[in-house]
Specification:
The protein has 172 residues and is α+β, with helices and mostly antiparallel strands. The chain has helices at 2-35, 38-41, 69-93, 97-120, 145-163; strands at 44-47, 50-57, 123-133, 136-139. A 4-stranded antiparallel beta sheet has the order 1-2-3-4.
């Protein structure tokens, strides 16, 4: 019975991470769209290397498959839904807090971007990192906080897999 209690505490940590990532992501997007009115303002310089810009991403990572139309959007959403279920099962079976929280962050980020796709037909991206070198500006891809949660979750899983070999793997 002790193992069941540990699993539920670990799963709760992942669930909290997912809810937190989802809430922060959606709150930031709603604020930027409806209160700050980023679409009306255009590009807003925050620091010499960070701007807020509104980008509607109809594709997946790095804008891949952005011209897939309504059927493509439905397929992407279905794939995302299946991925969330698989990740939740993995999370329920994981044995370390870091793996569970990492999976929770990935799930929360995926759901956040999925909500955008349902609500707007595209993912709301707004963060742009850039650097100027020799008079030429180099931009990173425009992203959002759901993307940050997903990347942080993947980094957590990778770190966990090196620190605790086998810990991030799903038990057989």
């Amino acid at each position: 019975m002790e193992g069941v209690g540990r699993v539920s505490v670990l799963f709760r940590s992942g669930f909290i991470a997912a809810i937190a990532a989802l809430a922060i992501d959606q709150a930031s997007k709603l604020w930027l769209l409806n209160i700050f009115e980023l679409g009306r303002r255009g590009s807003v310089s925050v620091t010499p290397f960070f701007d807020l810009v509104l980008a509607w991403n109809t594709g997946i990572s790095y804008g891949w498959f952005r011209d897939s139309g309504p059927l493509g959007q439905t397929v992407l959403l279905a794939i995302k839904g299946i991925a969330v279920v698989v990740l939740a099962i993995w999370m329920a079976r994981s044995g370390t807090r870091l793996a569970v929280i990492g999976l929770g962050l990935i799930i929360g980020g995926a759901i956040g971007n999925g909500i955008d796709r349902l609500a707007y037909g595209a993912v709301v991206d707004f963060a742009l990192l850039h650097v100027e070198i020799g008079g030429k500006t180099y931009n990173w891809y425009v992203f959002n906080l759901a993307d940050v949660a997903i990347v942080a979750g993947v980094i957590g899983l990778l770190y966990d897999s090196f620190v605790s070999p086998g810990a991030a793997k799903t038990p057989r």
